[in-house]
Amino acid sequence: MPPPVTLRRDLLAAVPAAILARSAASAAPLPSGPPSTDPGPPGDKFRPRLFRSFFLGGFECSTHRRGDGVRLDLLASTQHDAYVVQDYLQLATHGIRTARDGVRWHLVETSPGQYDWSSVLPMLRAAVSTATQVAWDLCHYGWPDDLDIFSAAFVERFARYARSFAELHLQETGQPPLLCLINEISFMTWAGSDRGLMRPAAAGRAGELKHQLVRATIAGTLAVREAAPEARFLAIDPMISVVPQKGQAPEIARAHHEMQFEAWDMLCGRRDPELGGGPELLDVIGVNYYWDNQWELEGRTLRPGEEGHRPPRELITKVYERYGRSILLAETSIEGDARAEWLRYIGEEMRAAMSAGLPLEGICLYPVISYPLWEDGRYSPVGLFEIGLRNGRREVHQPLADELSRQQRLVEAFLSSR
Protein backbone atom coordinates (compact mmCIF):
# COMPACT_ATOMS: atom_id res chain seq x y z
CA MET A 1 0.00 0.00 0.00
CA PRO A 2 1.52 3.37 -0.96
CA PRO A 3 2.05 6.03 1.69
CA PRO A 4 -0.62 8.70 2.14
CA VAL A 5 -0.40 11.78 -0.05
CA THR A 6 1.45 14.70 1.47
CA LEU A 7 0.34 18.15 0.33
CA ARG A 8 2.93 20.74 -0.59
CA ARG A 9 1.68 23.55 1.66
CA ASP A 10 3.71 26.19 -0.14
CA LEU A 11 2.00 25.32 -3.42
CA LEU A 12 -1.40 25.12 -1.77
CA ALA A 13 -0.90 28.61 -0.37
CA ALA A 14 -0.31 29.89 -3.90
CA VAL A 15 -3.71 28.69 -5.10
CA PRO A 16 -6.14 31.63 -5.01
CA ALA A 17 -8.80 31.15 -2.36
CA ALA A 18 -11.56 31.84 -4.88
CA ILE A 19 -10.37 28.95 -7.04
CA LEU A 20 -10.33 26.53 -4.12
CA ALA A 21 -13.78 27.70 -3.05
CA ARG A 22 -15.19 27.16 -6.53
CA SER A 23 -13.54 23.74 -6.67
CA ALA A 24 -15.03 22.67 -3.35
CA ALA A 25 -18.44 23.87 -4.46
CA SER A 26 -18.14 21.96 -7.70
CA ALA A 27 -17.07 18.68 -6.11
CA ALA A 28 -20.60 17.31 -6.37
CA PRO A 29 -21.15 14.12 -8.38
CA LEU A 30 -21.00 14.34 -12.15
CA PRO A 31 -24.23 14.54 -14.10
CA SER A 32 -25.70 11.08 -13.88
CA GLY A 33 -25.54 8.44 -16.60
CA PRO A 34 -26.17 6.54 -18.71
CA PRO A 35 -26.32 9.71 -20.73
CA SER A 36 -29.16 11.14 -22.69
CA THR A 37 -28.41 11.60 -26.37
CA ASP A 38 -29.37 15.25 -25.88
CA PRO A 39 -26.58 17.42 -24.39
CA GLY A 40 -29.10 20.04 -23.29
CA PRO A 41 -30.53 23.21 -24.78
CA PRO A 42 -28.64 24.28 -27.90
CA GLY A 43 -27.39 27.68 -28.87
CA ASP A 44 -27.15 30.48 -26.36
CA LYS A 45 -28.83 28.44 -23.59
CA PHE A 46 -26.11 25.78 -23.31
CA ARG A 47 -23.68 26.10 -20.43
CA PRO A 48 -20.71 23.77 -19.79
CA ARG A 49 -21.52 21.50 -16.85
CA LEU A 50 -19.32 18.42 -16.95
CA PHE A 51 -15.97 19.79 -15.76
CA ARG A 52 -14.86 21.89 -12.82
CA SER A 53 -13.05 24.29 -15.11
CA PHE A 54 -13.59 25.09 -18.78
CA PHE A 55 -9.87 24.77 -19.46
CA LEU A 56 -8.30 21.40 -18.64
CA GLY A 57 -4.72 20.24 -18.40
CA GLY A 58 -3.78 16.92 -19.98
CA PHE A 59 -0.81 14.84 -18.85
CA GLU A 60 0.82 12.81 -21.61
CA CYS A 61 0.39 9.21 -20.46
CA SER A 62 1.29 7.01 -23.44
CA THR A 63 2.50 3.54 -22.43
CA HIS A 64 2.74 1.68 -25.73
CA ARG A 65 5.56 -0.34 -27.17
CA ARG A 66 6.96 1.32 -30.24
CA GLY A 67 7.25 -0.63 -33.45
CA ASP A 68 10.81 -1.56 -32.43
CA GLY A 69 9.55 -3.00 -29.14
CA VAL A 70 10.70 -0.24 -26.78
CA ARG A 71 8.14 0.39 -24.02
CA LEU A 72 7.30 4.04 -23.35
CA ASP A 73 5.99 5.44 -20.07
CA LEU A 74 5.47 9.17 -20.42
CA LEU A 75 4.14 9.62 -16.89
CA ALA A 76 7.55 8.49 -15.68
CA SER A 77 9.49 10.36 -18.39
CA THR A 78 7.88 13.66 -17.36
CA GLN A 79 8.09 12.74 -13.63
CA HIS A 80 4.38 13.39 -13.29
CA ASP A 81 3.95 10.11 -11.43
CA ALA A 82 6.42 11.36 -8.81
CA TYR A 83 5.14 14.95 -8.62
CA VAL A 84 1.43 14.41 -9.15
CA VAL A 85 0.35 16.42 -6.07
CA GLN A 86 2.55 19.35 -7.03
CA ASP A 87 1.38 19.18 -10.64
CA TYR A 88 -2.31 19.24 -9.70
CA LEU A 89 -1.75 22.14 -7.33
CA GLN A 90 0.22 24.03 -9.93
CA LEU A 91 -2.63 23.57 -12.40
CA ALA A 92 -4.91 25.13 -9.80
CA THR A 93 -2.73 28.24 -9.60
CA HIS A 94 -3.60 28.73 -13.28
CA GLY A 95 -7.33 28.23 -12.73
CA ILE A 96 -7.37 24.64 -14.05
CA ARG A 97 -9.35 22.31 -11.81
CA THR A 98 -9.82 19.37 -14.19
CA ALA A 99 -7.12 17.18 -15.71
CA ARG A 100 -6.76 14.33 -18.15
CA ASP A 101 -4.47 11.67 -16.72
CA GLY A 102 -3.68 8.00 -17.20
CA VAL A 103 -3.70 4.57 -15.61
CA ARG A 104 -0.86 2.34 -16.79
CA TRP A 105 -2.52 -0.98 -17.54
CA HIS A 106 0.78 -2.81 -18.04
CA LEU A 107 1.83 -1.89 -14.49
CA VAL A 108 -1.56 -2.65 -12.95
CA GLU A 109 -2.39 -6.10 -14.33
CA THR A 110 0.76 -7.92 -13.32
CA SER A 111 -0.77 -11.32 -14.15
CA PRO A 112 -4.16 -12.18 -15.65
CA GLY A 113 -6.89 -10.89 -13.36
CA GLN A 114 -4.44 -9.77 -10.66
CA TYR A 115 -4.22 -6.01 -10.07
CA ASP A 116 -1.46 -4.03 -8.42
CA TRP A 117 -2.83 -0.53 -7.86
CA SER A 118 0.33 0.88 -6.25
CA SER A 119 1.03 3.07 -9.31
CA VAL A 120 -2.55 4.39 -9.29
CA LEU A 121 -3.47 4.98 -5.65
CA PRO A 122 -1.10 7.93 -5.13
CA MET A 123 -2.66 9.63 -8.16
CA LEU A 124 -6.24 8.99 -7.04
CA ARG A 125 -5.41 10.29 -3.59
CA ALA A 126 -3.63 13.30 -5.01
CA ALA A 127 -6.76 14.16 -6.98
CA VAL A 128 -8.87 13.92 -3.83
CA SER A 129 -6.48 15.88 -1.63
CA THR A 130 -6.14 18.72 -4.16
CA ALA A 131 -9.83 18.74 -5.18
CA THR A 132 -8.81 18.04 -8.78
CA GLN A 133 -11.33 16.40 -11.08
CA VAL A 134 -9.60 13.83 -13.29
CA ALA A 135 -10.69 12.11 -16.49
CA TRP A 136 -8.73 8.85 -16.56
CA ASP A 137 -7.41 7.14 -19.68
CA LEU A 138 -7.40 3.38 -19.03
CA CYS A 139 -5.60 2.37 -22.23
CA HIS A 140 -3.45 5.09 -23.74
CA TYR A 141 -2.05 2.77 -26.45
CA GLY A 142 -0.40 0.27 -24.04
CA TRP A 143 -1.45 -3.10 -22.60
CA PRO A 144 0.19 -6.00 -20.69
CA ASP A 145 2.84 -7.89 -22.62
CA ASP A 146 1.20 -11.30 -22.24
CA LEU A 147 -1.95 -10.20 -24.10
CA ASP A 148 -2.59 -10.72 -27.81
CA ILE A 149 -4.61 -7.65 -28.79
CA PHE A 150 -6.47 -9.67 -31.44
CA SER A 151 -7.64 -12.33 -28.97
CA ALA A 152 -10.97 -12.64 -27.18
CA ALA A 153 -8.96 -12.46 -23.96
CA PHE A 154 -8.02 -8.85 -24.73
CA VAL A 155 -11.67 -7.77 -24.70
CA GLU A 156 -12.52 -9.85 -21.63
CA ARG A 157 -9.52 -8.71 -19.59
CA PHE A 158 -9.94 -5.09 -20.55
CA ALA A 159 -13.55 -5.17 -19.36
CA ARG A 160 -12.56 -6.73 -16.02
CA TYR A 161 -9.74 -4.23 -15.57
CA ALA A 162 -12.06 -1.29 -16.37
CA ARG A 163 -14.66 -2.53 -13.90
CA SER A 164 -12.02 -3.05 -11.21
CA PHE A 165 -10.76 0.49 -11.68
CA ALA A 166 -14.31 1.84 -11.42
CA GLU A 167 -14.73 -0.03 -8.12
CA LEU A 168 -11.43 1.35 -6.86
CA HIS A 169 -12.38 4.88 -7.91
CA LEU A 170 -15.66 4.65 -6.02
CA GLN A 171 -13.88 3.31 -2.95
CA GLU A 172 -11.18 5.99 -2.95
CA THR A 173 -13.17 9.04 -4.05
CA GLY A 174 -16.80 8.25 -3.30
CA GLN A 175 -17.71 9.26 -6.86
CA PRO A 176 -18.21 7.45 -10.17
CA PRO A 177 -15.29 7.79 -12.56
CA LEU A 178 -14.95 9.94 -15.66
CA LEU A 179 -13.17 7.75 -18.20
CA CYS A 180 -11.64 7.58 -21.63
CA LEU A 181 -11.49 3.82 -21.95
CA ILE A 182 -9.30 3.47 -25.05
CA ASN A 183 -7.71 6.67 -26.28
CA GLU A 184 -7.81 7.50 -29.99
CA ILE A 185 -9.08 4.28 -31.52
CA SER A 186 -8.62 5.69 -35.03
CA PHE A 187 -5.06 6.93 -34.47
CA MET A 188 -4.11 3.74 -32.62
CA THR A 189 -5.37 1.75 -35.60
CA TRP A 190 -3.41 3.89 -38.07
CA ALA A 191 -0.19 3.80 -36.04
CA GLY A 192 -0.50 0.16 -34.98
CA SER A 193 -1.23 -1.37 -38.36
CA ASP A 194 0.39 -0.50 -41.69
CA ARG A 195 2.42 2.41 -40.32
CA GLY A 196 4.12 0.15 -37.76
CA LEU A 197 4.77 3.02 -35.35
CA MET A 198 3.51 1.07 -32.35
CA ARG A 199 2.62 -2.47 -31.45
CA PRO A 200 0.98 -4.61 -32.69
CA ALA A 201 2.56 -3.26 -35.92
CA ALA A 202 0.12 -5.49 -37.78
CA ALA A 203 0.33 -4.61 -41.46
CA GLY A 204 -2.82 -5.37 -43.40
CA ARG A 205 -5.00 -5.75 -40.30
CA ALA A 206 -6.22 -2.18 -39.74
CA GLY A 207 -9.91 -3.03 -39.98
CA GLU A 208 -9.53 -5.99 -37.65
CA LEU A 209 -7.63 -3.87 -35.14
CA LYS A 210 -10.23 -1.10 -35.16
CA HIS A 211 -13.03 -3.62 -34.63
CA GLN A 212 -11.18 -5.15 -31.70
CA LEU A 213 -10.62 -1.79 -30.02
CA VAL A 214 -14.30 -0.95 -30.44
CA ARG A 215 -15.30 -4.32 -28.98
CA ALA A 216 -13.10 -3.71 -25.95
CA THR A 217 -14.49 -0.20 -25.49
CA ILE A 218 -18.07 -1.47 -25.61
CA ALA A 219 -17.31 -4.31 -23.19
CA GLY A 220 -15.49 -1.89 -20.88
CA THR A 221 -18.36 0.58 -20.92
CA LEU A 222 -20.89 -2.09 -19.97
CA ALA A 223 -18.61 -3.48 -17.25
CA VAL A 224 -17.99 -0.06 -15.71
CA ARG A 225 -21.70 0.73 -15.69
CA GLU A 226 -22.35 -2.45 -13.72
CA ALA A 227 -20.05 -1.18 -10.99
CA ALA A 228 -20.72 2.56 -11.33
CA PRO A 229 -23.95 3.27 -13.23
CA GLU A 230 -23.37 7.03 -13.14
CA ALA A 231 -19.90 6.86 -14.72
CA ARG A 232 -19.30 9.16 -17.68
CA PHE A 233 -17.25 8.37 -20.77
CA LEU A 234 -15.16 10.34 -23.25
CA ALA A 235 -14.83 8.89 -26.77
CA ILE A 236 -11.69 10.65 -28.01
CA ASP A 237 -10.27 10.65 -31.53
CA PRO A 238 -8.53 13.12 -33.85
CA MET A 239 -10.56 15.68 -35.78
CA ILE A 240 -9.08 16.06 -39.26
CA SER A 241 -9.68 17.48 -42.70
CA VAL A 242 -8.28 15.86 -45.86
CA VAL A 243 -8.67 17.53 -49.25
CA PRO A 244 -7.46 16.49 -52.72
CA GLN A 245 -4.50 17.96 -54.49
CA LYS A 246 -5.06 19.32 -57.96
CA GLY A 247 -5.77 16.47 -60.30
CA GLN A 248 -6.68 13.98 -57.58
CA ALA A 249 -10.09 12.35 -57.44
CA PRO A 250 -12.06 14.17 -54.73
CA GLU A 251 -13.85 10.98 -53.67
CA ILE A 252 -10.54 9.43 -52.54
CA ALA A 253 -9.73 12.39 -50.30
CA ARG A 254 -13.31 12.36 -49.04
CA ALA A 255 -12.98 8.68 -48.09
CA HIS A 256 -9.85 9.47 -46.06
CA HIS A 257 -11.64 12.37 -44.41
CA GLU A 258 -14.64 10.22 -43.51
CA MET A 259 -12.48 7.59 -41.81
CA GLN A 260 -12.27 9.85 -38.76
CA PHE A 261 -15.90 9.01 -37.99
CA GLU A 262 -15.67 5.21 -38.20
CA ALA A 263 -14.95 4.44 -34.53
CA TRP A 264 -17.67 6.80 -33.28
CA ASP A 265 -20.09 5.32 -35.83
CA MET A 266 -19.27 1.82 -34.57
CA LEU A 267 -19.71 2.78 -30.93
CA CYS A 268 -23.16 4.24 -31.52
CA GLY A 269 -24.23 1.35 -33.77
CA ARG A 270 -24.43 3.21 -37.09
CA ARG A 271 -22.09 0.78 -38.77
CA ASP A 272 -20.94 -2.79 -38.09
CA PRO A 273 -23.79 -3.38 -35.62
CA GLU A 274 -22.51 -6.90 -34.95
CA LEU A 275 -19.89 -5.26 -32.69
CA GLY A 276 -22.67 -4.41 -30.23
CA GLY A 277 -22.71 -0.63 -30.48
CA GLY A 278 -25.73 1.51 -29.70
CA PRO A 279 -26.65 5.16 -29.08
CA GLU A 280 -26.37 4.75 -25.30
CA LEU A 281 -22.70 3.77 -25.66
CA LEU A 282 -21.62 7.14 -27.06
CA ASP A 283 -21.50 9.73 -24.29
CA VAL A 284 -19.26 12.82 -24.59
CA ILE A 285 -17.17 13.10 -27.77
CA GLY A 286 -13.59 14.28 -27.44
CA VAL A 287 -11.84 15.70 -30.50
CA ASN A 288 -8.09 16.19 -30.70
CA TYR A 289 -6.94 18.99 -32.94
CA TYR A 290 -3.36 20.10 -33.57
CA TRP A 291 -1.70 22.47 -36.04
CA ASP A 292 -1.12 19.61 -38.50
CA ASN A 293 -4.59 18.01 -38.49
CA GLN A 294 -5.46 19.30 -41.97
CA TRP A 295 -3.61 18.22 -45.09
CA GLU A 296 -3.77 17.53 -48.78
CA LEU A 297 -4.07 13.85 -49.63
CA GLU A 298 -0.50 12.53 -49.89
CA GLY A 299 0.62 16.14 -49.67
CA ARG A 300 1.42 19.06 -47.43
CA THR A 301 -0.06 20.26 -44.18
CA LEU A 302 -2.60 23.06 -44.61
CA ARG A 303 -2.23 26.10 -42.38
CA PRO A 304 -4.94 28.62 -41.43
CA GLY A 305 -5.66 30.94 -44.32
CA GLU A 306 -4.39 28.59 -47.00
CA GLU A 307 -6.64 27.33 -49.77
CA GLY A 308 -8.43 24.19 -48.68
CA HIS A 309 -8.02 24.85 -44.96
CA ARG A 310 -11.31 24.72 -43.04
CA PRO A 311 -11.90 26.70 -39.84
CA PRO A 312 -11.85 24.46 -36.75
CA ARG A 313 -15.21 25.95 -35.73
CA GLU A 314 -16.68 24.35 -38.86
CA LEU A 315 -15.05 20.96 -38.31
CA ILE A 316 -16.10 20.64 -34.68
CA THR A 317 -19.64 21.78 -35.43
CA LYS A 318 -19.91 19.07 -38.09
CA VAL A 319 -18.98 16.47 -35.45
CA TYR A 320 -21.76 17.75 -33.20
CA GLU A 321 -24.29 17.80 -36.01
CA ARG A 322 -23.43 14.20 -36.86
CA TYR A 323 -23.81 12.82 -33.32
CA GLY A 324 -25.74 15.33 -31.20
CA ARG A 325 -23.42 14.91 -28.21
CA SER A 326 -21.59 17.38 -26.04
CA ILE A 327 -18.03 17.98 -27.22
CA LEU A 328 -14.67 18.33 -25.50
CA LEU A 329 -11.68 19.70 -27.37
CA ALA A 330 -9.62 16.99 -25.72
CA GLU A 331 -6.13 17.83 -27.01
CA THR A 332 -4.56 20.86 -28.62
CA SER A 333 -1.07 22.40 -28.69
CA ILE A 334 1.82 23.51 -30.86
CA GLU A 335 5.57 23.61 -30.31
CA GLY A 336 7.77 26.50 -29.29
CA ASP A 337 7.07 30.20 -29.29
CA ALA A 338 3.80 29.77 -31.19
CA ARG A 339 2.09 28.29 -28.12
CA ALA A 340 0.32 31.47 -27.01
CA GLU A 341 -0.69 32.43 -30.53
CA TRP A 342 -2.14 28.95 -31.12
CA LEU A 343 -4.26 29.08 -27.97
CA ARG A 344 -5.50 32.54 -28.98
CA TYR A 345 -6.54 31.14 -32.37
CA ILE A 346 -8.21 28.06 -30.88
CA GLY A 347 -10.00 30.14 -28.26
CA GLU A 348 -11.45 32.44 -30.91
CA GLU A 349 -12.56 29.49 -33.03
CA MET A 350 -14.21 27.65 -30.15
CA ARG A 351 -16.07 30.73 -28.87
CA ALA A 352 -17.33 31.29 -32.41
CA ALA A 353 -18.57 27.70 -32.54
CA MET A 354 -20.26 28.09 -29.16
CA SER A 355 -21.93 31.28 -30.36
CA ALA A 356 -23.34 29.26 -33.26
CA GLY A 357 -24.79 26.63 -30.92
CA LEU A 358 -22.00 24.13 -30.27
CA PRO A 359 -22.31 22.48 -26.80
CA LEU A 360 -18.61 22.68 -25.96
CA GLU A 361 -17.75 21.44 -22.47
CA GLY A 362 -14.13 22.54 -22.42
CA ILE A 363 -10.69 22.90 -23.99
CA CYS A 364 -7.79 20.73 -22.83
CA LEU A 365 -4.19 21.93 -23.12
CA TYR A 366 -2.43 18.72 -24.10
CA PRO A 367 0.15 17.90 -23.15
CA VAL A 368 0.27 20.40 -20.33
CA ILE A 369 3.88 19.40 -19.59
CA SER A 370 6.42 19.46 -22.41
CA TYR A 371 7.76 15.98 -23.05
CA PRO A 372 10.31 13.80 -24.89
CA LEU A 373 8.97 12.68 -28.28
CA TRP A 374 8.09 9.03 -28.67
CA GLU A 375 10.34 8.20 -31.58
CA ASP A 376 13.67 9.72 -30.58
CA GLY A 377 13.37 11.40 -27.19
CA ARG A 378 13.78 14.91 -28.59
CA TYR A 379 12.41 17.46 -26.16
CA SER A 380 9.13 18.87 -27.46
CA PRO A 381 8.38 22.30 -25.93
CA VAL A 382 4.59 22.28 -26.17
CA GLY A 383 3.33 22.65 -22.62
CA LEU A 384 2.21 25.26 -20.16
CA PHE A 385 4.87 23.68 -17.95
CA GLU A 386 8.33 22.37 -18.75
CA ILE A 387 9.68 19.10 -17.38
CA GLY A 388 12.26 20.84 -15.26
CA LEU A 389 11.41 21.59 -11.63
CA ARG A 390 12.75 24.35 -9.44
CA ASN A 391 11.92 24.20 -5.74
CA GLY A 392 9.22 21.66 -6.47
CA ARG A 393 7.50 23.69 -9.19
CA ARG A 394 7.49 23.23 -12.92
CA GLU A 395 8.98 26.03 -14.96
CA VAL A 396 6.16 27.94 -16.66
CA HIS A 397 6.03 29.07 -20.27
CA GLN A 398 4.87 32.55 -19.36
CA PRO A 399 3.49 33.71 -22.73
CA LEU A 400 1.15 30.69 -22.76
CA ALA A 401 0.21 31.27 -19.12
CA ASP A 402 -0.66 34.89 -19.90
CA GLU A 403 -2.76 33.89 -22.91
CA LEU A 404 -4.51 31.18 -20.89
CA SER A 405 -5.48 33.79 -18.31
CA ARG A 406 -6.79 36.02 -21.07
CA GLN A 407 -8.80 33.20 -22.63
CA GLN A 408 -10.27 32.28 -19.26
CA ARG A 409 -11.50 35.84 -18.82
CA LEU A 410 -12.97 35.86 -22.32
CA VAL A 411 -14.82 32.58 -21.74
CA GLU A 412 -16.14 33.76 -18.40
CA ALA A 413 -17.40 36.98 -20.00
CA PHE A 414 -18.89 35.05 -22.90
CA LEU A 415 -20.80 32.67 -20.62
CA SER A 416 -21.89 35.47 -18.29
CA SER A 417 -23.43 37.36 -21.18
CA ARG A 418 -25.75 34.51 -22.22
Q: What are the defining features of this structure?
A:
418 residues; alpha/beta; TIM Barrel; two-stranded antiparallel sheet
Structure description:
This protein is α/β, with parallel strands linked by helices. The chain has one domain: Glycosidases (TIM Barrel). It is 38% helix and 17% strand. It is built from 14 helices and 16 strands. It has helices spanning 9-14, 17-25, 74-77, 84-93, 105-108, 121-129, 152-173, 185-192, 206-227, 250-258, 262-267, 312-323, 339-355, 398-416, and strands at 55-58, 98-102, 109-111, 114-115, 133-139, 178-182, 232-238, 241-243, 284-288, 294-296, 327-332, 360-365, 371-372, 379-380, 385-390, 393-396. An eight-stranded parallel β-barrel has the order 1-2-5-6-7-9-11-12, surrounded by four helices. α12 (312-323) packs across α13 and α13 packs parallel to α14 (398-416). The radius of gyration is 20 Å and the shape is globular.
